[in-house]
Amino acid sequence: MRRERQIELLSRVAEAGERLEGLYGEASMINDASTYVDPERFAIEQRVLFREGPVFFGMSADLAAPGSWRSMRFDGIPIVVVRQADGSLRALVNICRHRGAPLVDPQGQGSGLRSFSCPYHAWNYALDGALQARPAAPHAFDDVTANCNLLSRPVAEEHGLIFVRPSGDQPIDVDEVLGGAADDLGAFGLRDYVLIDTRRSEWNMNWKLVFDTFTESYHIRTLHRTTLAPTFNSEATIFEPFGRNLLTVGLRSNVGEEFTKPREEWNLLPYGTIQYFLVPTGLVVHQLDHVEVWNIEPVDVGRTRLTTSLYAPTEPHSERSRNYFVKNLDLLCQVTGTEDFPMMEDIHRNLASGALDSLVYGKIEPPLAHFHREVDRAVAAGS
Ligand code: FES
Ligand SMILES: [Fe+2]
Fold first, then answer.
1. How far apart are CA 19 and CA 22, in angstroms?
2. Which residue among 94, 95, 99, 125 is best mutated to probe the pocket of ligand 1, counting the most ligand atoms within 8 A of its Cβ?
3. Are 281 and 50 in contact (CB under 8 A)?
4. Residue 5 and residue 9: Cα distance in Å, rounded?
5. Count of H helices and E strands in the chain?
6. Is-contact 196 325, C-beta < 8 A?
7. Which of 110, 262, 298, 326 could cross-link to 207 by cystine, CB 3.0-4.6 Å?
8. What's the rounded Cα separation, in Å, for the pair 367 and 222?
9. Is the pTM of this model over 0.90?
10. Which ligand is closest to the CA of 148, given by its number?
11. What is the distance in A from the centroid of ligand 2 to the CA of 332?
């Protein structure tokens, strides 16, 4: 993030008052509890947000070398993205054209792939999806004239971020998806980051509760009383919408120290957890010395799969330095996995009971209101 931008964001904090009320939104919002638990609404969200896309898929660092691949599902469609020999990416539907078997683990990642070999009857495809061989059956298919290459989908890679469109063939304009955030994100140099490690988990909660988890700091002083509250501010966060996406910056409690320096020396990075919410599938979090990324895959209206990865700016120079990053990832998964997501599972269960009609997002939680308004808008347009 460029220095002027850091100063601009910190100025908002400096002027926001002791309780950061200057960062509040204009109004609270009431939302229907059913938006989290209604299967019909879920089906529309799946179609308009996940299936039609474009969706954030992962980082360039996930697919560092030719033959690296990663797979995920969007509204059920299994997509595999694979790095080609020339460095470009291909997004393919992970379904064999013979009789529909998955070619690679539908929710995994790996490296060193030279071709796709179907685990059912061993049809073989090049990394660009072209059918290369139907082994051991030289005449069994010689009357088939249909194209049997893997189905290809639009994919785009920019600023170290990868986006795919799971259905259709309309190309993806990354700068349009990122709106005003392209400049910020470009300046982080994410293209050069390296993947340290990845964790996967599944939770009994609606996918929107993942965004809800990270979009406000208001819960820190209570839910994270002993873990995060000693270090992090529990008041409002800096918030900026970009299209249907949003930026928030969570602040450390000691951010005020920076304001004793001359303004032109202000530096946000040591005090800020800078989060880019890429609706509907991702969250890219810039921390002072690393980046954390969450990928969100709804399984059904009440179940969500998460992939959590940590990236370092350069390859760690020693085992000790690698361990430092791995410990950071473990700590992240531990706090969210024992404090945030169990709470979200309880909330989901409560909302699914039908006992409550609505929820309240306060002025202290403006990113929540923006996120839900944007999802509502997409659902209304797609209904
Ligand atoms: S389903 Fe893939 S080779 Fe038969
Ligand atoms: Fe939290």
1. 8
2. 99
3. yes
4. 6
5. 9, 20
6. yes
7. 298
8. 19
9. yes
10. 1
11. 10
pLDDT in tens, the chain (383 residues): 889 999 999 999 999 988 899 999 999 999 999 999 999 999 999 999 999 999 999 999 999 999 999 999 999 999 999 999 999 999 999 999 999 999 999 999 999 999 999 999 999 999 999 999 999 888 999 999 999 999 999 999 999 999 999 999 999 999 999 988 888 888 899 999 999 999 999 999 999 999 999 999 999 999 999 999 999 999 889 999 999 999 999 999 999 999 999 999 999 999 999 999 999 999 999 999 999 999 999 999 999 999 999 999 999 999 999 999 999 999 999 999 999 999 999 999 999 999 999 999 999 999 999 999 999 999 999 88
Q: Any idea which residue has 């599902």 for tokens?
A: 73
The ligand 1 atom at the shortest distance from the C-alpha of residue 121 is 3
* Residue corresponding to tokens 């509250």: 229
> DSSP secondary-structure letter at 118?
-
